[in-house]
């Protein structure tokens, strides 16, 4: 739970480093190769969003657990934080965002679809924090 | 889900084995059917790539590692399509919801149109009104008063779809709120213009034509607000005349003056009101001419007014392969 | 297109070569970026499979023929996704068109709402009305007459989206066609009911509340038609009371009788009108309680009526993560 | 032009035979493997439609040519004919048909998207004829 590791994102190398960290951790946790690719894609989209629109920020990854009927379920939590311009209309982005439409936050609906839990908090000119979790099945 | 994928892997392995063994079209047909099963189970395409790799590894243990590794890359590229596929699913859900909303609204809109054609001894009236899409921006209405006059209104909102439909409902309420006593065509248009001018968005314009048929002296008085001209068929001369009525479209001017025209209608004559969706029918690269409409009307004019309208619609719709580009309204008023 | 594919094949071959050489995350990142290029060029996924096969054949001439042949099968299964992908593109075009239609209609709908709040010496009025989606089924209106009465109407069409919006426009025209002289709340609802009853689809119901504030004697008369109760804040007791008005929803009965209630309003008191979108706010698995709304109102009631309304909306919207399940309308009428 | 060949479709073997004929002819004409698969898929959808909803009918294939700036362009024309119940509302099917929605004519929008030219003629209780052409680029 305390094993949060963060990667700074300020250029494309940061994106690749965040992807690498995500792929390793998800493999460690026990995700299959398709889910590893999905988690990595989600991280990639979030990191690219930071790089393109906030210039810099960080991606933190965490092994998380929640109790289920028999024991614990493991998962991976991605936290993407920046102090960029913020997303003016979250409703708009989440409803109208198309994979290929481009623009700030365009990848967010895709991230939501790839992960199990998704939350976003954005304040104008204070930045954006996206939290997304995928649980091991 | 994991189980479903495992099960699919076994099925896919069998399909691959049979196909590689016989290389027959049957195997490819099975593959296509399998593809439908995947879509039904909402399996993403990246999942399929992963299954394919696993099957290859099992069937050909000697395959170079690099070939197997290349699937990591294919899978990664396929993720983009996987996202598009997921987006497709949610878009479809949203679209289905929107479409069913529009279905209900279109249904409501139908209730705004008159339910019955006014009955008189001397008139045979037929009407057909078909929206280009589900909701219509065309409107028509009948008013029958105690003095033996039958009023016929046709209106076309410039624009289509939902905004036009919203606007069309306003015309209906504008007509409903008219004073109780019958109005002459010009006065009626002036009244409706006032409501439209006050309530309608600046980007919306409405064309309208209103005619009042006096069933006692068979005079037909009419006025128009920028609307597509109709036709008047003269039985004695066996000729079609244009039924023009000049006037500014509704909603533009605060106090427009509409001119009133009148014609004496004889037995066997008939009046045609239409919206520009009838005349601006596109066939291939060209628009149909008003003369061609007349040809179609002539072809069916021996029938009742309703049959005449229905048949002209059928002909024009079929020419356009049932894809109307504009709302289509055609009213036939025959003196019998 | 052919050229584009050839060009992509060269790019893809480079990506594959680099990746297989180094097996690094960078290669996979490049693959993801490449996937975006493919989507931009609207390349179908079956095309990608074919390119992958061609690249493998070139890079590994020794690969068993059967492995290469297996791609025929993968391509065939991918065709299903190819079809879904094409469908997605056309669905998206249609969706964009539909959405832009609805944007225009929503814009038109905004013009149906009052542009300004009536100005009086003794009242501070604030309002916020936000549709759950683009078009609203909530309606509000003000009427100020020469006798110093300010009328405030709030209505909610049961249902949402396009059909509700169509219906909402009718309420507007029904209000417009009311007789010129001011009506008492009960008589006004009876009048509006007549229009609704005649024009509205059987599946549609409308709830409404109407109140008339007399700015001379500070009496507030109100009647309701099945509408969500409001609140009355009493400054002297520092307490919120329910503002209930019993009555049948509009459009059900031909000749309903509405009861009229009245309250004397003191300085510092305020009236809250709302639609059930305010109270039926869902947070996680539970609905918010009316008491919680009161808590929010209390938190901001030292502010102006408009700021009070805006802040309560912001709090409730944020609780629901900005996804409203119903249209939201809140009106605050403060005696100052 | 005169080389129309027809395959009777009254069971799944007929579907496979029609596919086979389409794949061979399209290969002969010079279509690449992806286009061959597309043409075959279109034929398959049309044949399945016949088999499922009209019980029997036929798929005819033709090499067609049209003049272009420099010489002739070759293509393949598919004609799917049946005397089944017909499609009550073509507009409906063509607009609302989703790939996976099933039902009579559900595959038709897909066929339209796979081919270059597409026409349909259906009369209630007289049957349906679909004509679709793909041109060699
Ligand atoms: Mn129109
Ligand atoms: Mn028109
Ligand atoms: Mn409502
Ligand atoms: Mn409501």
Automatic annotation (TrEMBL), chains A, D:
SMART domains: HATPase_c (SM00387). It comes from the Bacteria. It holds the Pfam family HATPase_c. InterPro entries: HATPase_C_sf, HATPase_dom. CDD domains: HATPase_RsbT-like. Residues 34-137 form the Histidine kinase/HSP90-like ATPase domain. Gene3D superfamilies: Histidine kinase-like ATPase, C-terminal domain. This is Anti-sigma regulatory factor.
TrEMBL record, chains B, C:
The keyword Transmembrane does not apply. InterPro entries: Bact_Sigma-Reg (IPR052016), KaiA/RbsU_helical_domain_sf (IPR017944), PPM-type-like_dom_sf (IPR036457), PPM-type_phosphatase-like_dom (IPR001932), PSer_Pase_RsbU_N (IPR014787). SUPFAM superfamilies: KaiA/RbsU domain (SSF101215), PP2C-like (SSF81606). The keyword Isomerase does not apply. It is an enzyme of class 3 (hydrolase). One of its GO terms (molecular function) is protein serine/threonine phosphatase activity. Keywords: Hydrolase. Residues 124-335 form the PPM-type phosphatase domain. It holds the Pfam family SpoIIE. Its EC number is 3.1.3.16. PANTHER family: PHOSPHOSERINE PHOSPHATASE RSBU (PTHR43156:SF15), STAGE II SPORULATION PROTEIN E-RELATED (PTHR43156). This is PP2C family protein-serine/threonine phosphatase. It comes from Halalkalibacter alkalisediminis.
């Amino acid at each position: 739970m305390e094993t949060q590791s963060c990667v700074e994102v300020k250029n494309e190398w940061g994106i690749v480093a965040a992807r690498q960290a995500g792929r390793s951790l998800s493999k460690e946790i026990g995700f299959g190769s398709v889910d590893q690719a999905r988690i990595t894609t989600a991280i990639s989209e979030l990191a690219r969003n930071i790089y393109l629109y906030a210039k810099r920020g960080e991606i933190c990854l965490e092994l998380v657990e929640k109790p289920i009927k028999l024991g614990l379920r493991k998962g991976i939590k991605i936290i993407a934080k920046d102090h960029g311009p913020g997303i003016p209309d979250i409703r708009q982005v989440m409803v109208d965002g198309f994979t290929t439409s481009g623009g700030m936050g365009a990848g967010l609906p895709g991230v939501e679809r790839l992960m199990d839990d998704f939350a976003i908090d954005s304040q104008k000119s204070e930045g954006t924090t996206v939290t997304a979790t995928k649980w091991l099945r | 889900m994991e189980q479903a994928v495992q099960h699919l892997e076994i099925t896919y392995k069998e399909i691959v084995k049979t196909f590689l063994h016989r290389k027959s079209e049957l195997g490819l047909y099975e593959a296509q059917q399998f593809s439908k099963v995947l879509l039904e189970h909402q399996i993403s395409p990246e999942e399929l790539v992963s299954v394919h790799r696993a099957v290859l590894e099992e069937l050909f243990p000697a395959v170079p590692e690099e070939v197997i590794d290349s699937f990591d890359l294919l899978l990664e590229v396929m993720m983009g399509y996987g996202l598009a596929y997921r987006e497709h699913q949610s878009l479809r859900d949203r679209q289905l919801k929107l479409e069913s909303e529009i279905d209900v609204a279109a249904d409501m809109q139908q209730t705004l149109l008159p339910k019955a054609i006014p009955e008189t001894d001397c008139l045979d009236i037929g009407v057909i009104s078909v929206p280009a899409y589900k909701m219509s921006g065309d409107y028509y209405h009948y008013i029958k008063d105690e003095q033996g006059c039958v009023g016929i209104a046709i209106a076309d909102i410039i624009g289509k779809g939902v905004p036009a439909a919203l606007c069309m409902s306003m015309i209906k309420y504008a007509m409903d709120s008219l004073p109780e006593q019958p109005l002459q065509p010009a006065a009626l248009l002036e009244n409706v213009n006032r409501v439209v001018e006050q309530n309608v968005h600046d980007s919306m314009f409405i064309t309208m034509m209103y005619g009042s048929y006096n069933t006692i002296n068979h005079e037909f008085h009419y006025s128009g607000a920028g609307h597509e001209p109709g036709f008047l068929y003269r039985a004695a001369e066996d000729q079609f005349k244009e039924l023009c009525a000049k006037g500014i479209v509704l909603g533009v001017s605060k106090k427009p003056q509409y001119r009133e025209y009148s014609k004496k209608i004889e037995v066997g004559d008939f009046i045609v009101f239409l919206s520009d969706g009838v005349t601006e029918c596109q066939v291939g690269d060209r628009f149909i001419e008003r003369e061609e409409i007349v040809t179609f009307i002539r072809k069916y004019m021996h029938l009742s007014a309703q049959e005449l309208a229905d048949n002209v619609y059928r002909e024009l719709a079929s020419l356009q392969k049932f894809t109307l580009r504009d709302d289509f309204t055609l009213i036939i008023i025959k003196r019998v």
